[in-house]
Write a structure and sequence with these properties.
Blueprint (H helix, E strand, L loop, with lengths): L2 H14 L5 H21 L3 H6 L5 H28 L2 H20 L4 H29 L5 H29 L4 H12 L1 H5 L16 H12 L2 H32 L4 H29 L2 H17 L6 H15 L5 H8 L5 H30 L15 H17 L5 H17 L1
Helix pairs in contact: 2-7, 2-8, 4-6, 4-11, 4-16, 5-6, 5-8, 6-16, 7-12, 11-15, 11-16, 11-17, 12-14, 13-14, 13-17, 16-17
Length: about 425
């Protein structure tokens, strides 16, 4: 056997000691819950906070996107670092950066400082989230990959459930800057459970240097898998929707069109988070049985439909119903990370996760900028108001069309989880004959 093959076997044996360990998954999930709790706390007030610096919807969108710009650029380097160095140290560094950036954002005296703070936050998020995703992928075996990764996503979404409400209440009770300081404290607490995580072996040849030629060769190998590209494009569109519609258009629509305050906006986003959490965890187990493609395809087409309904909301109740349905169908995307892991070469997991996060985060960047720009162009001006105008139907329509395109693209992708299940059933049937 080759030296590389021996290293792969050794790595699998060492990591199998943690495979399927629910306590390790819950530990990792707890920290990600704290990160998402803080991130979601600033979600209902971030567009309004940016607007307070007297900027357009496009620049409001850029505040949301600036976080993802840095994260997108650093996702790949974060994946490479996690291949070479201790994953726990990289995750802790990311948490420290997120906490520091939140304090800076809370004290921001102008729009430019807020953008810089958000970009630092994106750097911290790239280090933490990409490395945590690799960590989880390494301890998740093939048979329960969807279950464990969806459990992780479900715990993650608990942060999205409670965060918006807490953030809205803090903003209404104290000040619009208060959620940023709470975010800094909560994320800082995440360092302590991260320290107790087990140390994992790296995939591939961990002793090799990070040479540009080797990195580019590995990237080409991953990107030469058509299904990997098709699936990551589908995930790109779900990220596009999360920041373009949920984080940008919905809070602006709720505040400017419906006149809702920060607390009400936080409640609406919380309802969406609750319904997502309800569907996302069981969908992982379902995907282990029927494959990953069907749940993700359903997510795309159903989300396209409900996105068209959102701008017809007339009050808090109807907007809450729309976001509740929206959240439920978004939960169908829970097996996405497991899908990408299925398609990844085993010795290039960190490269695959870095590329997956980078392509996905491109959706984070494009969504708020594109839909914010379209909202500016199509808004109905209101005399005497400081904002750009009432948000119309058109930006929601564009988002829906992009989702439908992704649906048809995804139909061409392979589904290794479904194939494994079908082969296992066939083998069982043959043994009975």
């Amino acid at each position: 056997m080759s030296e590389k093959h021996h290293e792969l076997i050794d790595q699998k044996v060492r990591n199998s000691n943690h495979e399927g360990n629910v306590l390790t998954v819950l530990n990792l999930s707890l920290v990600t819950f704290l990160v998402l709790l803080g991130l979601s706390m600033v979600a209902p007030i971030l567009p309004t906070y940016a607007e307070s610096f007297q900027v357009s919807y496009t620049l409001v969108g850029f505040v949301v996107s600036s976080f993802a710009v840095t994260r997108m650029v650093l996702d790949m380097p974060a994946g490479l670092l996690s291949r070479r160095f201790d994953k726990k140290k990289i995750m802790i560094s990311g948490l420290v950066l997120i906490s520091t950036s939140s304090i800076l954002a809370g004290f921001a005296p102008n729009y430019g400082t807020l953008v810089i703070a958000r970009m630092i936050e994106g750097a911290g998020s790239a280090l933490y989230v990409t490395t945590a995703t690799v960590f989880l992928a390494q301890i998740s075996g093939e048979e329960k990959r969807g279950q464990w990764m969806s459990l992780y996503m479900g715990m993650l979404l608990l942060g999205a459930i409670f965060g918006p409400t807490f953030g809205g209440v803090l903003a209404d009770t104290y000040d619009i800057r208060a959620p940023f300081f709470a975010y800094a404290i909560i994320t800082g607490l995440g360092v302590f459970p991260t320290i107790t995580l087990p140390k994992l072996a790296n995939s591939g040849n961990a002793s090799s240097s990070l040479k540009r030629g080797e990195i580019l060769r590995d990237m080409r190998e991953v990107l030469s898998t058509p299904s990997f590209l098709l699936v990551t494009f589908a995930v790109f569109t779900t990220f596009f929707l999360r920041t373009g519609v949920r984080t940008t258009l919905v809070p602006l629509f709720a505040a400017n069109n419906l006149g809702l305050d920060s607390g009400a906006i936080g409640l609406v986003l919380t309802i969406g988070g609750i319904t997502t959490a309800i569907t996302i965890t069981p969908m992982g187990s379902v995907s282990d049985r029927i494959g990953r493609k069907i749940p993700l395809a359903l997510c795309l087409v159903l989300t396209a439909a409900i996105t068209l309904v959102i701008p017809f909301s007339t009050d808090l109740l109807t907007l809450s119903i729309s976001l509740g349905i929206y959240g439920a169908v978004i939960g169908f995307s829970g097996p996405s990370a497991a899908y990408v892991t299925d398609l990844s070469p085993p010795d290039k997991l960190e490269i695959s996760m870095g590329l997956y996060r980078m392509i996905s985060d491109f959706g984070f960047v494009v969504g708020p900028l594109l839909l914010g720009f379209i909202a500016d162009l199509t808004a109905t001006p209101v005399g005497g108001e400081p904002h750009s105008g009432l948000i119309g139907m058109f930006p929601f329509l564009i988002a829906s069309i992009i989702l439908i395109v992704a649906f048809f693209v995804l139909l061409r992708a392979d589904d290794p989880a479904r194939d494994r299940r079908q082969n296992a059933v066939l083998k069982s049937d043959l043994q009975l004959i």
